[in-house]
Amino acid sequence: MVKRYNQLSTWIMAGLFSGIVVGLFLGDLCEPLKVVGDAFVGLLRMAVLPYIVVALIAGFGRMSLLQSRRFAWCGGLVLLGLWAIGLLSVYILPHSFPTWNTGSFFSASLLEPPESIDFVSLFVPANVFRALAEDYIPAVVLFSVALGLAIGSLPNRDLLVTQLDLLSQALTRVSAWVVNLTPVGIFAISAHSAGTMSWAETSRLQAYLVTYTVGTVVIVLGVLPALICSVTDYSYREIMRVTRDSMLTAFATGKLLVVLPILISQTNRLVREKHDSQSTGGNTGRFDPNQVDALVTTAYPFPHIGKLMGMLFIPFAAWFLGRPMVDAEYPGFLVVGLFSYFGGPLVATPALLDQMHLPHDMFQLFLVSGIYCGRLGDVVGVMHLTAFTLITSTALNGRLKWSFWLAAQWGVLTVLIFLAFSIGLRLTLKQTVANMEDREDLIANLQLLEQPVPAKILKQASPNPSPLQPGESLLRRIRRRDVIRIGYNSDKLPFAYFNIRGELVGLDINMAHVLARDLGVSIEFVPYDPQQLRRQIADDCFDVVMSGLVGTLDRSVSIPHTSSYLDVTLGLVAEDFRADDFRTLQQMRTLRDLQIGYVDISRSTLDQYRKVLPDAEFYSISESHRFFESANQLGLDALLINAESGSAYTLFYPSFEVIIPQDLKISMPLFYAIGNRDAEMREFLEHWIHLRTKDGTYRVNYEYWVLGKSQRPAQRRWSIIRNVLGWVP
């Protein structure tokens, strides 16, 4: 049996490394292997949930009430001890981060908030069949334990428990058949991952990835095996022999659930071997072959150390943003994090970002890191379940021991390992920080989509140097001068603004270049003042104003303009940690002394907000960026702004978040203003907007400037066959 498992481990390792080699060699040509990997994972999952149900019902069904209490007491204490190790690791590891001061972070795309999770359905099995179908593991476990305890109180329980044991053995045999395919499945998964995984964003995650890896290595190879060896009779070699197949499979598949049958089978075998050897030596304690099944399946739904290690991302985010967490912040953070992770990382991470007043933009990087860290977390989960099972079963059988000298030896060895890794980690991270992308490099990718036409940017508004001749239209003057004068306001992100390189860019600036190219002329960009726009148009300062100009009743009467080319949604911008205060009108009405700023909002729109928030004060400010740079000095709680512009500002100021109140959604039109009340120019622009909408130009620009979707052709994954040997194009 041992020889068989050693052979399986060898084949799993061979499949893993050969898959990585093939992936690096073939690159994205490995895409078809995804089907093989998905099929393998599906086969692994096929019998797992039924096995959990049957094993738990049978395990608790054969226990007496006293045994169930001992089970809960011993298991609870061991679980608390393991959680303490995980939380302590989350506290210690961030202290390896080197000193780095930065106050900004840029994300090139917006992230929708994660879907809310129905905690009642997750934990309460109102419909056990739905819980089984949707993988609500806690609910399935609760149902199985309750049914098992009920069976345990029946007089003829042995008959049913025996049948459940047979069914459990059958499900184990099915899993064993699938396990024989593990080398093939892991080869397909590792080849696909190595061949198609993008590394474009890992430069910003190196510190987190390296730290998480170090923590995983120390816990899996040092802390948890040392704990097991210190309080039980199991040796380090026995522990690693039992867990290596499961850890390799969990890392390759990214699914801890699918390795439970393998882990239970091998752990059960180890416990049986230890019991037999001790019985031979005179210890005749009773061996329960179903104890391991009950322990593993009961512990699985609870957060394991690998999941808790995901909390490390919050100190990393704080360090990355130049606001490293202090020791006084950790107790509350760790306690809240522990309970948050009962709902999973997608629920816990945004909540913890809120708690620590960190921008939600960081959640995007957390999702990217999950490709790698989630797999490492499952490796830790395997060792966590092994430690829980071996220690708890030893305690239940009355064989728990404590060797001070052995614990001291393991403790010293673990400390030395951690110090060595910590020193290496700090040196590595110093180099990482030195090579990390600056904010300028991140923002610099927001450039015009095509080659711009020749353009001149004026610093002040002034009348056109070539006045209109008698009877001359704007179009004729534009063609006579070969120049179109376009009004802009650089406070109109993402429609018009200066990027970090000092270039005038944005959606409307991009469309201005398209318009000039269509006319075959160059551009003079002339700045306008929203308060003086009417007079500046009357003074012939612009031919067209293209700068995210919001339609208002006053402007529709006094300024000639086109029809709306885009409707934007009015929203609020507030600091991330206060975003929940503005989700609904009811929440906003509970705020005292609420003060809201606004820039370039129509009177009718402002009246709607004043009507629903009668106790709030509204203040006009000259430029939007003043709010982001000095909201506290201005005494403002939020900024009233269209959500498209507000979202763009959060790219530069990531500690703010855009909120659209659920019960107050207001749309506002954007249009282009036209100089000299020129009907011919207005008709031309209407036709031009219609054509550019139909041919997709506006859609492409909207996706790039507002939604943050890159329009650059996706680069093919680097591979040896293409980039080194040149065998394929």
Textual characterization of the structure:
The protein has three domains: 2-439, Proton glutamate symport protein, CATH 1.10.3860.10; 455-564 and 670-705, 3-Layer(aba) Sandwich (D-Maltodextrin-Binding Protein, domain 2); 569-667, Periplasmic binding protein-like II (D-Maltodextrin-Binding Protein, domain 2, 3-Layer(aba) Sandwich), CATH 3.40.190. The strands form two sheets. Strands 1, 2, 5, 6, 7, 8, 9, 10, 11 and 12 form a ten-stranded mixed beta sheet that branches. Helix 4 (65-92) packs across helix 18, helix 10 (206-231) runs parallel beside helix 18 and helix 10 (206-231) packs antiparallel against helix 19 (404-435). It is α/β, with parallel strands linked by helices. Residues 1-5, 101-115 and 436-444 have low confidence and may be disordered.
